[in-house]
Amino acid sequence: MSNSANSLGNDPAPRLDRAAIAKRAARDLIDGSTVNLGIGIPALCADFLPDGVELLYHAENGILGFKELSAPGEGDPNLMDAGGKFPKLVPGMAFFDSVESFALIRGGHIDVTVLGALQVSRNGDLSNWMIPKRGIGSIGGAMDLAANAKKVIIAMEHNVKGNLAKIVNECTFPLTARTCVNEIITDIAAIEIDQENDRMILRETAPGWSFDDVQARTEARLTIDGDVGQMA
Amino acid sequence: MLKSDSVLGPGAEKSLLRTKIQQSVSDTNVKDRTIWLAVPINKISNSFAQAVADIPSGASIMIGGFGGAGGQPTRLMLALRDLGVGDLTIIGNVAGISKTTGYGWPDHLDPIDQGMFFESGQATKITCSFPVPGTTNPLSDIEKAWREGKAEVDIVPQGTLIERIRAAGAGIPAFYTPTGVGTPVAEGKEHRDFDGRTFLLEEALTADFALIRAQKADTRGNLQYIGTSRAFNPAMATAAAITIVEVDEIVEPGGIDPERIGTLSTYVDRIVLRETGDPLP
């Protein structure tokens, strides 16, 4: 990981909070898509869907078409999502076993997955299952989703503590999948990965942040293609 | 060859039965045909302790469910812990994270998970997809055993894990998958390109015993599941030499709608009924 950002001064403006990252990522979820949201910030996307957008949520443990969660204390252990939470039974919901659940994923039937990340490289390699220092990690469904979903969106904080970059030239953490990430939404930027032309395009910045501010906190080189918008 | 750490060999119990049957028909000139289950078998065990009593040290054990309370054979797990046998290999999915995080358990109950076999020192290996939670405070039983060098942890992508189990039960020795290519799980595995995409070869995974959970069994062993409790249960039932199921209800044949049978009786060797009103999910 790059240490170049260590010498940076203060941030030029506040960073988005976790809910705001999720809200921005949710804007890229298309009505009618079959979607799998990872745990953490990605799961929050469900709370911020734009008006009129309805998604078919899939979870690895064998459930399709869930919506809101049961009230605390009222959940049924036999009606769980992959995050270990208990959704409500709603019309149109379907249950199935893990063979079918992963045939759905591996077979390319999931339109979009939103996942967290430890590192993303310039060409879209993803590391999100193990911190080398810990020496043990959990893969779960992440490798299947990252390798096989039609679109992979990463929703995460842009830097780790000390301003270390998570968007890097080459991932140094164990990989989840190669060249799989299409888009990264962070607390300071929205970035598109153009794998065909091997470049990372800065699409939007958080309010009060410039291209240079974002680049200074990003190890991989960013490019501009058209206007840079403001995250909202 | 199926991949196995088996001490019994796949189909051990059924082989004994087959030998017996072949002997009994030997004077009727039946030579190349294998006759299965010509004699009725009582599959219902009287207690959880009885159902697991012959599990030996060194056995490999699949534990069904997903992780969390639903679909987990909790009473069978507790019986196996009380049996006290050691050097076990556990095959699970999301394993041993509920106790420290509450994952998949109602708030008012103390979570029970596969970490119990590492806390007790009975298990020396686990193959699973999700052995540790994000947090290390407090440390889970599996991570603690791993850090102390007491347990080997084999981490497999979830879709690869379930397909390896499915393959074992379906007579497929290995299969190609795109998942894991270019990552640490691909190391040492055969790669092959199909239509310009690279895949890697993964081998079937079997076990000596599968402990699984269903809502309802008929006396023959046909099973019905409820909600999201299926997860790894149906595939594990097909992949182990001996499958033991924990159920809330046992009915006569016909008591389960044939359209709703989630696991065929063929795969089920032993059935144990939970007590009515058991406070554990």
Key terms for this structure?
heterodimer, A: alpha/beta, Glutaconate Coenzyme A-transferase, 5 helices, B: 281 residues, seven-stranded parallel beta sheet, three-stranded antiparallel beta sheet, 8 helices, 22% helix
Topology:
The complex is a heterodimer of chains A (232) and B (281).
Chain A: H1 18-26, E1 34-37, H2 41-44, E2 56-59, E3 63-64, E4 94-95, H3 98-106, E5 112-115, E6 119-121, E7 126-127, H4 142-148, E8 151-155, E9 159-160, E10 164-165, E11 167-168, E12 183-185, E13 189-194, E14 199-205, H5 211-216, E15 222-223, E16 229-230
Chain B: H1 12-24, H2 48-52, E1 60-63, H3 74-83, E2 88-91, H4 98-101, H5 116-119, E3 123-128, H6 141-147, E4 152-155, H7 158-170, E5 174-177, E6 191-194, E7 197-203, E8 207-213, E9 216-218, E10 223-224, H8 233-239, E11 240-247, E12 249-251, E13 270-273
Parallel strand pairs in B: 1-2, 1-8, 2-3, 3-4, 8-11, 9-12, 11-13
Antiparallel strand pairs in B: 5-7, 6-7, 9-10
Question: Could you describe the 3D structure shown?
Answer:
- The complex is a heterodimer of chains A (232) and B (281).
- Chain A has 232 residues and is an alpha/beta fold.
- Chain A is built from five helices and 16 strands.
- Chain A has a single domain (4-224), classed as 3-Layer(aba) Sandwich (Glutaconate Coenzyme A-transferase), CATH 3.40.1080.10.
- In chain A, a hairpin with a 3-residue loop joins strand 2 (56-59) and strand 3.
- Helix content of chain B is 22%, strand content 21%.
- Chain B has helices spanning 12-24, 48-52, 74-83, 98-101, 116-119, 141-147, 158-170, 233-239; strands at 60-63, 88-91, 123-128, 152-155, 174-177, 191-194, 197-203, 207-213, 216-218, 223-224, 240-247, 249-251, 270-273.
- In chain B, helix 6 (141-147) links the parallel strand 3 (123-128) and strand 4.
- Chain B has a domain at 47-155 and 212-273: 3-Layer(aba) Sandwich (Glutaconate Coenzyme A-transferase).
- The longest helix of chain B is centred in the N-terminal third of the chain and has 13 residues, at 12-24.
- Chain B contains eight helices and 13 strands.
- Chain B is globular, with a radius of gyration of 19 Å.
- The interface between A and B is large, with 42 and 59 residues.
